[in-house]
Every structure is written in C-alpha cells, then in structure tokens.
Amino acid sequence: MKILKTLAFLALATMSSLPTMGQDLLARQAPIDTKMKAVDSVALHRLIETESYYEAPAADLYDDWDNMHAHSHATELPDTFRISLKNFCMPTDSRVLTSNFGSRWGRQHKGLDIKVYIGDTIRAAFDGRVRVVRYEGRGYGKYVVIRHDNGLETYYAHLSKQLVSEDQDVRAGDPIGLGGNTGRSTGSHLHFETRLCGMALNPALMFDFRNQDVVDDYFTFHKSSYQRESQIATRLRGANVGSGEDVELATAAPAASYAQESRFHKVKKGETLFSIAKKRGTTVDTIMKLNHLKKNAKLKAGQILKFN
Predict the structure, then answer these.
(1) What pLDDT score was predicted for residue 63?
(2) Residue 131's pLDDT is what?
(3) pLDDT value of position 251
(4) Backbone phi, psi, residue 199, to 5°
(5) Pairing of β 175-178 and β 121-123
(6) Alpha-carbon gap, residue 266 to 72, rounded angstroms
(7) Which of 22, 234, 249, 265 would bridge with 238, disulfide CB 3.0–4.6 Å?
(8) CA-CA distance, 303 to 297, in Å (whole number)?
C-alpha cells in the first residue's frame, strides 16, 4: 500500500510539472518564432517589391537594363504612352529655372536647368530603380539615372556627390545626390531630364517647378503632337527670362551669373522680417544691414531683399 501511495505521488508530481515544462519550452521557442516571422516579413516585402516592379509599365516598355550607358535606344518609342505622375516628389525645392528645354546655342538642350547650390539635397522624383551612377567630365559630371515604375527615366546631373548605387531601389523623395557644379557646367545647378525609351521629353510637360507640383495625375505622350505640346509647356512653365517676374533667375543659360554668395528673397503678402529670417536661416539684423532697413520698416509684396 505504501508503495502504491509513493507511485501515485510521483505520478501526480510529474503531471503537475508538465505545464511548467511546456511553458518553458514555449518561452524558449518564442524568440525563435519572432525571428522567423521577421525573416519571413522581410522576404515577403522584397518579393512584393520585385513583383510590383516587374508588373509596372516600365517592365513591359523596356527591353534592356544597362548600367554602363546613360542613353539607351534599344527600346522602340511607342506612338502613345500614358505616364502616371502620382506619388511624386519634386527633385529640388528650388523654384528658379535658369535654362529651358530645347534649342540652345545651335544644339539641343535635353533638360531643364534648376538653380541649386552645392550641397543642396536632390531627391528621386518617383519610385524606381537606379540604373546608372557615373561621372562624365565633359558632360553630366557626376550624375544619376533612375528608371521609374511609371515608364519614365529621370536624369540628375552636375552633382557634387551621388548618394545611391546602381541597381538600388528608391522611393519618391529619397535623397539620391547633392547639388553641385561638376562636368560641363559654369555654375552650380541641377540639370534634370525626363526620358521615355531614350527620347528626351520636356520636363515642363510634367513638372511645374515654380509651383512645386506636377501638372496633373497623368501625362499622355503622343508622338504626333509632342513637339507642339512641348513648346506650349515651355511658354507656360519654363524660364521666363527678362520679365522681371523672378529676380532670383537673373539670367538665362548657361547658368545664373549673379555672385554665388548673394541670395535674394521676394517678399510675399503678410511676410515680416522675422518670418523671412526664420525661413531663410538668417537673422533680422543681417537682413536689415544688407538692405539698409530700419527695424520698423514696412515691407511690400514683391519687394526684393538680400538675405546673405
């Protein structure tokens, strides 16, 4: 009887310990499960990104992927192609255009020149994949080419530094370089191109730098009417040289001729010396001194102030 009681006690003790052992096993297993879930999540995210890229219009449009050459003409230009401009980011917050797309000095200027300063952040215009990161001493200088999911390729030239590598996936707004004056350039600026199947399209057809916006949710390229539409876009959204509308513009291509250290602000309605100083990263005293103003001076909309 005593032996039976002992065996019963041992059996009961063993059974009572099982939940604890099970909990210990689960506790040890939990971090492993968490790690596996994280790995699965990363793998799934990459798979989704890859599938999204290959299902994008660019995958059906282009026949090649070339990291060596900026311009690829291996793909035939379609007669009509619809380009989504949604989920965009302006490549720079500069509103100052210094040169238009089109004929210039007897040759074609294939993009827009936007005034930026050395070190200014340049961003990817749309989601996509970096195709080229190279240096061209007699042309683009340090430049980046991105092929976007919407079928466009964008070029960012004369950079002082490239911040991405070839075959890297980027999102709209990701920093891809810093403004500079490398290559065939006579002043710091961003040369910005938009191309479709190797053909340079006027960026003004899609981007409105003055208003820091795109012109619509979509742009439809028509081979038959492109030239006329490009000319209209330049008149509407290109550099308006000599009109007095943009004092910061100063002159046309090849680059702004004003001294690089001198920068100006065009006063908007309701702005004060304090708000302007805060926006431009300077002080009220500095603006007053540069412009020979008194502290109680009244500002007028359209007034031009030097701020450094």
Answers:
(1) 83
(2) 97
(3) 32
(4) -85, 130
(5) antiparallel
(6) 42
(7) 234
(8) 12
263-278 per-position pLDDT tens digit: 677 788 888 888 888 8
The pair of three-digit structure tokens given for residue 253, joined into one six-digit string: 């291509």
What's the CA gap between 40 and 33, in Å, rounded?
A: 10
Identity at 283, one-letter amino acid code: T
For residues 232-249, one letter each, b for 16 or more C-beta atoms within 10 angstroms of the residue's C-beta and e for the rest, the string is: ebbeebbbbbeeeebebb
**Hey, what amino acid is at 250?**
A
Residues 6+ apart with CB under 8 A from 57: 81, 83, 84, 149, 150, 151
Q: Does the model's pTM come out above 0.70?
A: no
Instruction: Return d(Cα 16, Cα 51) in angstroms, integer.
Output: 51
Instruction: Tell me which amino acid residue 201 is.
Output: L
Instruction: State the sign of the Cα–Cα–Cα–Cα dihedral 24, 26, 28, 30.
Output: negative
φ/ψ region of 158 (left if φ > 0, alpha if ψ in -120 to 50, else beta) reads left
Higher pLDDT, 90 or 26: 90
Q: Which amino acid is at 89?
A: C
